[in-house]
Amino acid sequence: MRDNLIEKAKKVLLGNKKKGFTLPTNNKLYPAQWKWDSGFIALGYSHFKLKYALDEITTLLRGQWKDGMIPHILFHDLKTDYYPNHSVWNCGNKIHSSGITQPPVLAIMLKKILDKNKIKISDKLKIKSIVQKLKKYHDWLIKYRDPKNTGLVSILHPWESGYDNSPLWDYSMNEVKVEKNLKYKRGDNKVINPEYRPLDTDYDRYVTIKNHLRKNKYNPKNLYKTSMFNVVDVGFNSIFLRANKDLLELLKIFNLEHKSLQKFILKSENQIEKLYNEKKGVFTNYDIKNKKKIIVPSITNYFILFADLKNQSINKKIIKDLKNHNQNEKYLFSSIKPNYGKFEEKRYWRGPVWINCNWIIYQGLKNKDKKFANKIKEKTINLIKKKGFYEYYSFKTGEAFGASNFSWTASLFLDLVMEKKYN
What we know:
three-stranded antiparallel β-sheet, two-stranded antiparallel ribbon
């Protein structure tokens, strides 16, 4: 059964593979290369074909902008019904792309890949080049998304978080005045049941923010101040802190400059702790645009465990709280705590279980609470065994929603089941 599923997971990846990159799924829902998907996908490939893993990252980095930004979408195929497509974004360097970024998982994935693979001398130059490009990207995030040098970076569009329609953004999105005479044609809710996708009211605001970014020519110097959306997200910053720690190790391996990054890591670790609300025992997002703290019980707040804070007291409190997120349910973890008023069992990032969230939290727990970590790992593997390689699932029944043959689900399944071979 296990070996059969491993082969099926490999088939999902190879079935979604194009020249040098891999689609998130083989249907019309996501007909391009997505940034954090590619990171997870590369990790999956590294368990059976290192070349494909490195190709995935290298192709993504071919679309890196001159200033260092890595876009969240690269449009390798221009004939698509996807919205927003390349012409709507109207930007890109060498490859048509979106004008925003996504969670910075690449340094984390690269370090994991290198930790468990013997690298040929012929690949070392390629890997050094990747590390240099990732450093340029991290420098871009620090310079333009934290211009006040606070130690915490902002996202300027909900899409940058990766969890597009999470209730985390409800307050900030309600403050966005929708553009008049807005015209666009969604394709996603023609491919997938609209009950599982973001609402049209969400899309009106997504497009309004995107149009504002485009009008400003995606100029990172101005947009931090002028964007219609500017939020310090715990999940994104947790991933970035972990990615910076991993990038630091990679820079040392190749004897590359790392002192400035080391300083930022210290500041970042210190500042992210200040987002912890002692009274409520939770981490809070901060809406810079509207000067408001946001408290929403999102599973992404627990990505802080992945950042490996040195503060053991906070780690223990967070783990205790995590155990109450939906501990008594058959399937872990609902993306939003089920007793929250805005929870929706089936709608995208408003309730379903996402395998990448489970994987991130599992990684963060391995060195803090092994028993709980193994429980999450086991439940995640069993969910996929029962229901297949889907985009997301009901936390109540395990029912599968969204895209089938989903690449990051297959990749992270491979990483979870094959992990013991390397540890």
